[in-house]
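Sanity check. The docking grid for iron/sulfur cluster depends on where the pocket ends up, so I'm generating a full predicted complex first rather than guessing from homology. Inputs follow.
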Amino acid sequence: MGKKDEVSKQFLDALEFRGIKRRDFLKYCGATAALIGLSELYGPKIAAALEKAAKRQPVIWLNFASDSGCTESFIKATYPSPAEVILDILSVDYNETIQAAAGKQAEEILAASRKAGGYILIVEGGVPTKKGHGMIGNKEMLDVLKEMAGPAIAVIAIGSCATDGGVPAAKPNPSQIIGTGEALQRVGISKPLVNMDLCPVNPQYLVGVVVNFLLLGKIPDLDSQGRPKMFYGQTIHDNCERRAHFDAGRFVEKFGSQEEALGYCLYKMGCKGPMTYSACPKIQYNDRTSWCIKAGGPCIGCAERGWTDKFAGFYEPLPGVKIPGLGGVEAGADKLGAIAAVATAAGIAVHAVATAASGRTKGKDGGKK
Ligand code: SF4
Ligand code: SF4
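Predicted complex below; grid placement will be based on this.
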């Protein structure tokens, strides 16, 4: 079946009318196929699935305790953006942050959607369980979740606030905020649930999960914490562009230093990449422009459950990490400094000789200039 047979001309014309070129849209669908582990030949099938969904797949997006950073991340994405694909093509009937409706009108939309049922429920933000600490339309957020999760076909918790409370639930957590999974258990609702830990969620992860659902009619394979294996199957450290420096024992010890300019490993600056599972180095943010470590910041481990308390302070090295460049030494935060300082100095010296010999310098991401 050719592209034209699968995706109607009318649909592609409608997209073009909204400023999304058909060629870009089909290209985007091909890239999305690759994102979820399918051949790019599945692109037209994804386009067809989205066309079908435009007619019948409603989405409800609830905002609880958060800074709405996940919505921000989504709507700031580039053209043809996941926001356009999901928010324009799918029928997002309710999203408090970006919808025009408010007050009674917004409440009516929620009531009508609840009655119709069959929607995908996206949850952004944690759920306060202390009475009066999180209200929408004079209702406790926990009750809003209960009402709206009941008729949903699946629930997707986006961002670490939604999966386990995230930043708003950090100690001492005065509002007793919990994640979506725990909240659903508390109100006795069992639904297919996908957890997308990250702060904020990567828009491409959400597109991948929604497209997987539309195309294959099921949520993707999940790990023990309910995260899609396709995005949470490997550590940041496994795919990090600074990994060769780690393996050789070349570390940044101070921001603004020569080692930092050379793009050395950020382990000693507190990088939590060795214990954090997420595809950030592969998928990156803003149309693969950059990501935390490429931009020069150590990973703070925001893809891991309980990261706000577990990984604080964020600039302290993780204990118990084996460092191959130092002969497989397992160094704790206390003893790493002295060992690695020697290796770093040696690494810089070797690098300087090699650079002078080749006449090249390296950028912050370790790439050649
Ligand atoms: S910067 Fe972090 S993730 Fe990258 S190699 Fe170093 S420790 Fe591993
Ligand atoms: S690299 Fe680390 S801190 Fe940055 S988004 Fe990924 S998991 Fe979070």
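Relevant for the grid: Confidence is low (pLDDT under 50) at residues 1-5, 331-369.
Also worth noting: The chain has three domains: 1-56, 57-231, 236-358.
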